[in-house]
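User: Here's a structure from my thesis project, written as structure tokens. My advisor, Dr. K., wants to see whether a designed sequence matches the one we expressed. Can you design one independently, without my sequence as a hint?
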């Protein structure tokens, strides 16, 4: 199977029609689309560490959630992180493919996986994404579901820390027990009002603005900021399994697919 064939198969399962219009994911660096896939590294981010790991492991495709490039490059001269990565990828013959907001919205993607990890049931979509910013498929990014039984805010915070392997998190309770839980991996500060309108007792996301947390005790909905990386990384093994399934169906089950779970952005 070639790089282009594998990407096309992933695109069929994670369609661009779910992406927000401002997104810049897809096959962004591809020295040779006709090259046979020798190995695939799946990561959350195309960091320099992830690129180095792909080189060490002999992979010629790096599949990520976040795009390699969000904004255009003015020059590819190695003077900044983005251009250094592009040069290193091209020299090493490594292609990159990213599935960003479409993987957020995808059934079984980032936010369904986050809901499952937190033990939610009766999960439904909510929030931005559907019909907005060039996303015509009508699937919102966020998810809302229920706990098996109500929990105190402190108990629910302990649940989140355990599920996401966190040493700590930012949270603000609102004086009531938690039953309905809204989740949005990554930056969810634009969807606080949508989570409240959906009837959530708590909104779990990666990043929030300070004053949103300050206002939570008076707004009728608790807020938790559990870290961008930690709320999205659970989908990486799911994405890797999707790659394995495609390769297996193509008769290339012997092509190694591995995970890269490193990040230098940590909650300490």
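Assistant: Designed independently from the structure alone:
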């Amino acid at each position: 199977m070639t790089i282009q064939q594998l990407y096309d198969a992933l695109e069929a399962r994670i369609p661009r029609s779910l992406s927000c219009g401002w997104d810049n994911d897809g096959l962004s660096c591809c020295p040779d689309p006709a090259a046979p896939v020798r190995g695939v590294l799946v990561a959350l981010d195309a960091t320099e560490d992830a690129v180095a790991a792909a080189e060490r492991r002999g992979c010629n495709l790096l599949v990520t959630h976040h795009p390699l490039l969000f904004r255009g490059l003015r020059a590819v001269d190695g003077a900044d992180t983005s251009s250094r990565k592009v040069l290193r990828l091209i020299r090493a013959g490594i292609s990159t493919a990213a599935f960003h907001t479409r993987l957020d919205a995808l059934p079984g993607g980032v936010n369904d996986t986050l809901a499952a990890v937190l033990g939610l049931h009766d999960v439904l979509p909510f929030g931005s994404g559907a019909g907005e910013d060039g996303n015509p498929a009508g699937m919102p990014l966020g998810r809302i579901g229920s706990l098996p039984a109500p929990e105190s805010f402190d108990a629910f915070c302990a649940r989140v820390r355990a599920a996401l392997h966190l040493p700590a998190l930012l949270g603000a309770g609102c004086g009531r027990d938690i039953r309905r839980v809204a989740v949005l991996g990554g930056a969810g500060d634009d969807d606080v009002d949508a989570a409240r309108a959906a009837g959530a007792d708590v909104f779990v996301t990666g990043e929030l603005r300070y004053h949103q947390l300050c206002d939570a005790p008076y707004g009728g909905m608790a807020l938790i900021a559990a870290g961008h990386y930690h709320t999205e990384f659970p989908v990486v093994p799911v994405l890797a399994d999707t790659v394995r399934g495609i390769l297996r169906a193509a008769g290339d089950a012997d092509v190694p697919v591995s995970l890269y779970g490193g990040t230098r952005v940590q909650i300490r």
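When you compare it with your expressed construct, this may help: The first strand starts at residue 26 and ends at 29.
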